[in-house]
Design brief:
rod-shaped, 88 residues, Flagellar basal-body/hook protein C-terminal domain-containing protein, Flg_bb/hook_C_dom
């Protein structure tokens, strides 16, 4: 995957920003879904330690993905700002 240039697989500039936004969105949706699963635990199906532990692990993993995606957005924002400054 290219990190420079204007190719279809390019992750420079706005492409990198878009990838970060998608990551934040997807992990946010997964966090919400998992939070709903935890909230429903024991109400519609028997509560199990394994099921709850799996949900907690999923939440931790999705939080890390969310944080990493937010960092991608931050880096893309900095790079776009630098590019704009360089062309001005």
């Amino acid at each position: 995957m290219n990190v420079t240039g204007n190719g279809a697989n390019s992750l420079s500039g706005s492409g990198l920003l878009q990838q970060g936004v998608q990551g934040v969105s997807r992990s946010g949706q997964a966090l919400q879904s998992t939070a709903n699963d935890i909230a429903r635990a024991g109400t519609t199906e028997p509560l199990t330690i394994a099921g709850t532990a799996e949900s907690v692990v999923t939440m931790i993993t999705q939080q890390q993905i969310f944080d990493a995606s937010a960092e991608v957005i931050s880096v893309a924002d900095e790079n776009l700002g630098t590019l704009i400054d360089a062309t001005a």
